[in-house]
Design a protein that fits this description.
Shape: globular
Number of strands: 10
Strand content: 15-25%
CATH superfamily: Glycoside hydrolase/deacetylase
Order of helices and strands: EEHEHEEHEHEHEHEEH
Radius of gyration: 16 Å
């Protein structure tokens, strides 16, 4: 029997700026990373998850860590904890927001990208749901954001996270055509025909409801997707 590798999707670590469930405190994030270490999980890169078709053996303990949107608090709080822990992680940034108030700068992103295991990926140009805009605009957003990131960071960009988890089969086809190795969705990819698709890595949204060890442990169990959305 095999189960899903839990790919964790974090957003902001500043609940005062974002008083919603998806923003958690830096202290809770540190506790999560400690829990992962103490329970001897193997933190994987996303491309390895994609190549493994999202799955792990029944007794394996694997996970992956991602952040969406490129918020400044990711650099201020998450980056140092990940570096201390030696954990791999992927940060998906919206290129039009880089350098704006409350978001990471190019210098910060270059510093992060230089650390082994830390990956910077695309969250497209303007954080527009790709399936809600024209195919031409979606294609431009996928291609241009990848090109900008590669030029600014001096390294290949392998992955993209679809804004709001929005995709359709044409978007998946375009993502492959744009040269990405994998793509990340949200938690709602239930159709069995999508399972194992490297361009539809299913993730678990981490929110303030994952504050207890029991709740976070369930998200890391590998069976969480069987229960539906967070």
């Amino acid at each position: 029997m095999r189960k899903f590798i839990p790919v964790l999707a974090y957003h902001s670590l500043d609940p005062e700026r974002f008083p919603n469930r998806l923003a958690i405190s830096p202290e809770l994030f540190r506790k999560h990373m400690l829990w992962i270490r103490q329970n001897r999980f193997q933190v994987m890169g996303l491309e390895a998850c994609a190549k493994g078709e999202w799955k792990e053996g029944l007794w394996e303990r694997k996970t992956a860590i991602t952040f969406d949107d490129g918020y400044l608090d990711n650099y201020q709080h998450a980056f140092s904890v990940l570096r201390e822990s030696g954990f791999a992680a992927a940060f998906f940034v919206t290129t039009e927001d880089v350098g704006k108030k409350g978001f990471m700068t190019w210098d910060m992103l270059r510093e992060m990208a230089a650390v082994p295991g830390i990956e910077i990926g695309s969250h497209t140009l303007e954080h527009k749901p790709l399936s809600d805009i024209s195919e031409k605009e979606a294609w431009t957003s996928l291609v241009a954001s990848k090109k900008i990131l590669e030029e600014k960071l001096g390294c290949e960009v392998r992955g993209v996270a679809y804004p709001c988890g929005s995709f359709n089969e044409k978007i998946v086809e375009m993502t492959r055509g744009a040269g990405y190795a994998y793509g990340c969705t949200a938690s709602h990819v239930h159709d069995r025909k999508f399972v194992g698709n490297p361009y539809l890595l299913r993730r678990i949204k981490i929110s303030d409801s994952s504050g207890s060890g029991l709740a976070f442990g369930l998200r890391l169990s590998g069976f969480y997707h069987f229960f539906g959305r967070p």
